[in-house]
Amino acid sequence: MAMKQLLTEVSANHFPNPPATPAQIAAFEVRVGWKLDENLRTFYLHCNGAALFEAPPDMNYRILPLERIERASVAIRGSEEDVDGSPSHFTLVDMQDTNFVILDVATPVNGCYPLLDAFHETYPDEAPRIAGSFEEFLEKALRSGNRSFWLSTEPLEG
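User: That's the sequence. What structure does it adopt?
Assistant: Structure tokens below.
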């Protein structure tokens, strides 16, 4: 499914924030030291974060606004030390209780950053890849019925 269709679905059925401006994106990229990939740039120009399925504060999936994205080790461990998480890991989706879906900005594949599961009890020792791109992640999340699709043994909806 194309990103445009996914974004239409987010707007119609979920809880998107207003769009980020190009200036906000530029300031974000300066702050974090890396550039959004095409999927992420398209998403943030459409909405600067979103809650999926449930309105805040009750949502399981909270795609963070640009100003809330930070190094995963800081969000999960409260540490800037590399031993507590790779400096290339950044939070993207807050799954509640200091569990996150994170980006690995050091290893883009076909121009897209892979997404990893960062479970607070096992990160950084374990951070399995759950999607090869934000587009793939968003499509699976939207079909998940509000479940963590990478943990569920039930088939995805749709």
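The mean pLDDT is 94.
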